[in-house]
Amino acid sequence: MVIPDLGRASRPAVGADAGPRVEPGSFRDPANQVFHAGGEVLRALDETAAAHWRALAGSTFFPSLVAAGKVCGTEELPPGAARQLLAADRLGGAEPWPAWAAVLRHERIPFVSHPYEWSYAMLRDAALLHLEILRTALPAGFTTKDGSAYNLQWRGSQPVFIDVGSFTPLREGEPWAGYRQFCQTLLYPLLLGAHLGLDFQPWLRARIDGIEADQMSALLRGLRRLSPGVLTHVHLHRSVQRRNADRSTADVRAQLRDAGYTRQMALATVRGMEKLVRRLDHRPAASHWVDYQRTCGYSGADRAGKERFVTAALTGAQRSRLVLDLGANDGHYSRLAARHADYVVAVEQDPAVVDRLYRTLRAAEERRVLPLVLDLVDPSPGGGWRGVERASFAARTGADTVLALALVHHLAIGRNVPLPEVVACLAGYAAPGGRLVVEFVHPDDPMALRLLANKPEGIFPDYRRDTFEALLDGYGSVDDRLELPSGTRTLYRVTLGG
Q1: Taking residues 440-448, what's their average pLDDT?
Q2: Which residue, 132, 212, 247, 321, has fewest beta-carbon neighbours within 10 Å?
Q3: How far apart are CA 392 and CA 400, in angstroms?
């Protein structure tokens, strides 16, 4: 199987060293350990997993999924290359390095995100890809042993399945082992939005394993029991779980085989779930932020000057591999940055705004802009086992260029974050020696005055331009600045210290 490039030109993981390092999110499957070594993403397989991989690579369906970009690019390394990349007797003082049967190299995903950072349409498209892959695998005699939303990542607006180790030969008469995970991390969050109008992000962020059937059953009672998917995948699923709580998984599988459960029945179930997921939709309620670019009060001259300044900042130095656009709103500057950078992560706190942006990017088949739902005042923390199984947002950043346009006043005045903390946060999201392009809205700007009107008088005495500039000087050198024609907003380009 020929995998072009495998993304080796993409940005290495922040803080990765040349030695092997276990991916904290892969420890739950000891047969499929993922490592980072020498800037590569590797998967080490035991004897059984290696045999499954070679059967998978020799199948007709798997290479087609890879070629279509639906599964991440993967190749098996020659033994010599694998030994060189994993040349270590010990891993962080742990047990001796095992003798793996095979080592795979995966393409590097430009930026790792978590399902609770996705919009509704993103989660639905991820669920549909998961089901499509399973539907394609079943006739070829394969299934997936997991159904987690964490098995998917993004190339811009394109979802991609990354857990190659999840594929396993299908044993006739056995149900899909990943069904419960799929419900908890994909289907139930979608039902929350479609049937209850609730944003799923806080629910997924609260529990790494997703939403339990008991929780969904309590929410979807009365007439809501008749909503699409609820009786079968919530209430019936809950009853089956309770009825079999004292039985082993092997006993349940044997019972299904004895009852005549077949591959065709499994395939029909997957097709039914696909049909259900396609029907589900949730358009988050419109908010002030949806029309912010139209209502924020920029003149035509201000907009033109701002675009020229940002473009010059992105083109006047080495090309950025990763741009982080904080407070991206409708993604105007994210898309501008994508013309001059390898990849852009567009961060916005409002799920409705991100969902609209994602649908726009998807329609344009944009592969270099990833929109994410994230509140900078409460960003994604580390989660899962020991708080590192899912890396925090701060641990995943390290951008060559950070854009913070029309953002500082919302954090400092709107959210009461002290100005020194705001600047420290923005600078901290950049890689050493990176660039910060930031806009300061003066206290006498109409938007700042609107925010100040809701605050006690005199609460922000240090929110001043001279204070802001002194703070920037503390993190690097201000290489360029522009006062917009309105006279109440100033843009800065800062090269941050190493």
Answers
A1: 95
A2: 247
A3: 19
Decide if pLDDT at 252 tops 80.
Answer: no
Q: Would you place residue 441 in the very low, low, confident or very high pLDDT band (cuts 50, 70, 90)? A: very high
C-alpha distances in Å from residue 409, one per residue of 204, 303, 468, 489: 30, 18, 11, 11
Q: Which residue has the tokens 């950025």?
A: 320
Find the mean pLDDT for residues 111-130. 98
User: What is the b/e burial string over 117-126, where b = at least 16 CB atoms within 10 angstroms of the residue's CB?
Assistant: bbbbbbbbbb
CA 67-70-73 angle, 5° bins: 55
Question: If pLDDT is split at 50, 70 and 90, which confidence band does 38 have?
Answer: confident
Quote the pTM value: 0.91
Contact, 412 vs 441, CB < 8 A?
no
Q: Phi/psi at 192 (nearest 5 deg)?
A: -55, -45
Residue 446 CB partners (closer than 8 Å, separation 6+): 297, 488
Structure tokens at 213: 């059937």
Separation in Å, CA 336 to CA 326, 363, 401: 14, 17, 13
Average pLDDT, the chain: 89
Name the percent of the chain lying above pLDDT 70: 87
pLDDT at 437 over 90: yes
